[in-house]
Every structure is written in structure tokens, then in C-alpha cells.
What we know:
Order of helices and strands: EEEEEEEEEEE
Number of strands: 11
Shape: elongated
Strand content: 35-45%
Largest sheet: 4 strands, antiparallel
Number of helices: 0
Strand order of the largest sheet: 4-11-9-6
Structural class: mainly beta
Amino acid sequence: MKNYTITVNGNVYEVTVEEGVSTGAAPAPRAAAPAAPKAAPAAPKAAPAGAQGSVTVAAPMPGKILGVKANVGQAVKKGEVMLILEAMKMENEIVAPSDGTVASINVSVGDAVEAGATLATLN
């Protein structure tokens, strides 16, 4: 591990870089000053038993659900917008990975989600 001190816009950050560890996401920098605590993300709502589909639609990044464009039982085509996810003040369209029927929607508007969280499933 290597430690660095970085100054950005007058704010000093202590950053530790681990070598040989790849998680696919960059760790957040640690601020020298105490940071405000983050709100705990809401747990995804569980779909009724037996309602999970075989194709999972996962969150590509952490964010907040702004809109749900598909309904359970609706037929969707590959690339059709199913959800709107706000991340870093940008609206991201979450699209169907394949043709199918929506088996479950596991989130609702306003939910905070983590990267990799199951947002919906398709049959």
C-alpha cells in the first residue's frame, strides 16, 4: 500500500492505494477533515416468492432510482428503458439486457441502490 496526500480545490485528502487488488471500483478518498456521515442505502424490496425471473437487471453503479418505466408482466425488448437511475447528478437509463417479460421490479422511486444490486428480473 502507498499513501498519498492530495490537495483538490484547497481540500486536503489522505489517499491509500492498494496494489494488486482489483474490485472493479475505485475506493473513495478519505478526507483529512471529518466528513458528514452518509445515509444508509435502503435495502431492495423483496419480490414475492416465486416471482423472480431468470434474467437479472443489476445496477451498474450506486445511485438513486428516479423512475420506473416498466411494470411486472410487461413485455420488453432488448435495449428498452426499464428504470432511470441518478448517479453523480446524471440520469442513466437502465435498459433490458434481453427480450422478455418483466417478472419483478425490486425497487421503487426514491430508493438508494448499490452497484450490483438487483433492480428487476425478466423471464
